[in-house]
Amino acid sequence: MCGIIGAVTESALEPVLEGLGRLEYRGYDSSGISILTNDKIQTLKVQGKLNKLKEVLTAQPLKGVCGIGHTRWATHGKANETNAHPHQCGQVSVVHNGIIENYLPLKQQLLQWGHRFQSATDSEVIPHLINHYLSQQFSQEEAIEKTISQLQGSYALGVLINGETSNLYAIKQGSPLVISQGNNGAYLASDAMALGADSSKIYYPKDNELIKLNSNEVKLCRGSVNKKIHYINNNTCAHLVTKGDHSSFMEKEIFEQVALLKNIANKQHSNNYDSIDFNELTKVTIIACGTSYYAASVAKHWFEQYAHLSVEIDIASEYRYRSPLIVDKELTVFVSQSGETADTLAALNYAKSKGAQTLAIVNVGNSSIAREADHVFEIFAGPEIGVASTKAFTCQLAVFYKMIMAAATQRTALAESALSQIDAYFMLIPHLVEKLLQSAAEMKPLATKLSQYSNALFLGRGMLTPIANEGALKLKEISYIHAEAYAAGELKHGPIALLDENMPVVILAPKDSLTDKLLSNIQEIQARNAPVFIIGDSSIREYVNLKEDEFFELAEIPEPIIPFISVIPMQLLALYCAQTLGKNVDQPRNLAKSVTVE
């Protein structure tokens, strides 16, 4: 999940450092930079976040026209300075995102050849192999080609080589990489969002295309053959993203949901939902990870209730390992905010190999998953910097809701009046979210009280069970309070054994068709002396005695759109709990935004 950046320009340090700042969402265990200065590669690495590297570079600045940088999410080896990238051997320095699965036998061979290793990483074998082949009189390109022919696993590489001609090379296999050429230089990065304002044209290389960047040109190389690169325009404005007046990116992104949902409701952004023939489909399978999986779980309810279409949901990391059956006229849907999630991309490639029709629901229209799928629906959430996803979740729900409307219309699954009503409900969502966020501060006392506990259970029913799961996930991610979620009816099938005065239960209880069932579950909880926190309709308070810091009121909401509104308090609860505990909301420990390794 690491981030890599490279630049060949008049002064490489500035764009590399700026790019690392925009890539830190991918990992922040350590960071490092290599700059080619006066025919010598100088490398600086630090443990910890990027600010530490910037402090070192202020005291020890590096100057040069060619450089690479890396921000790390640790896989092989602890998060320390030694294991930080770039890794260097002789005249070669390398930054790597991915995992080299056969690094141990390669390392053993290199040790027999007399090489000495400094780190515990899998990545360090790469510069050693390249340097070995350079010492055998292979050209720079041949040395890289021979090296990658031996690598098994995934990689996106920036390779800096010092020699008679000093070049920066880029190559990938299964990991995201983008190349850019601007007016003042050439660049490589894990994500187009890392590229600066000079990067007006970008290119997404295919696997194992070796690309050479120098001060004069960018070439796609294969041996001695140089091919023309076809660029596309880079419209990203990620370099302009700031927190504004908010305390964190997560807080800013929670409040951005109003405007984003308004844009979708007013069709300022739209997908061609009728590009899918839902009438012909026999089945829909939705594959995702994490927060995207819970959005898919809500969509399953909508599809089956309103479009009368059978839906399965699957965890991307499990999907292709159980030989799933793909039936005739099945649509497989792959949901990923980044569009680079390694498990989801692998699942997509598996489904395509079995002849399935594929659809990507992504936030990045040029991402790897989008480029591989037959159809693409964008969620139009804009850059999401906070590691804990918020606005991407509601925008995913919005796209699914629009899909369900198209499916229900094509399949004539509902009466026209019912369909019109469900469609009209969507227009209410931005207003209801805005009204709820106006009372966001009322969540703080509840969050302060909940943050005193080490564990929590979350309960919901029907479409709110995935929202309860999302709430528990958010709390775990950024406050480090252990939390689990259940369908409320499952409480008595095991989890009720955990209930005592030290096990709080957070209950989603808006007014809907299952409220009466939920009241019985609440009584069962209170009978066991477990602290109860309710996010729900005011009528609940007639049946349950709650203090002001144990209840957050939800307005009355039309049932089809309850998931959109009820997830906002889940996000606020996690945010305020984490802030109460003094946690880093945007960069929680051990996590990264884009999961690009399996």
DSSP strand tally: 25
Which sequence of strands runs across the widest sheet?
Answer: 3-2-4-1-10-9-11-15
In DSSP terms, counting alpha (H) and pi (I) runs of 4 or more, how many helices?
18
User: CATH superfamily of the largest domain, called what?
Assistant: Aminohydrolase, N-terminal nucleophile (Ntn) domain
Task: Output the CATH topology of the largest domain.
Answer: Glutamine Phosphoribosylpyrophosphate, subunit 1, domain 1
Note the beta-strand portion.
Answer: 15-25%
* Architecture (CATH level 2) name of the largest domain: 4-Layer Sandwich
CATH class of the largest domain: Alpha Beta
Query: What value does the average pLDDT take?
Result: 90
C-alpha Rg (nearest Å): 26 Å
N-to-C CA distance:
9 Å
Give the domain tally.
3
Structural class: alpha/beta
Detail the poorly predicted runs: none
User: What composes the largest sheet?
Assistant: 8 strands, antiparallel
Percentage of residues assigned to helices: 25-40%
Principal-axes shape call: globular
Describe this structure as you would to a colleague.
This protein has 598 residues and is of the alpha/beta class. The chain folds into three domains: 3-240, Aminohydrolase, N-terminal nucleophile (Ntn) domain (Glutamine Phosphoribosylpyrophosphate, subunit 1, domain 1); 243-427, Glucose-6-phosphate isomerase like protein, domain 1 (Rossmann fold, 3-Layer(aba) Sandwich), CATH 3.40.50; 437-590, 3-Layer(aba) Sandwich (Rossmann fold), CATH 3.40.50. The protein contains 18 helices and 25 strands. The protein has an eight-stranded antiparallel sheet, covered by helices on one side. The chain has a seven-stranded antiparallel sheet with strand order 5-6-7-8-12-13-14. Strands 17-16-18-19-20 form a five-stranded parallel sheet, with helices on both faces. Strand 2 and strand 3 (40-47) form a beta hairpin. Helix 15 (443-450) packs across helix 18 and helix 16 (464-479) packs parallel to helix 18. 53% of the residues are buried.
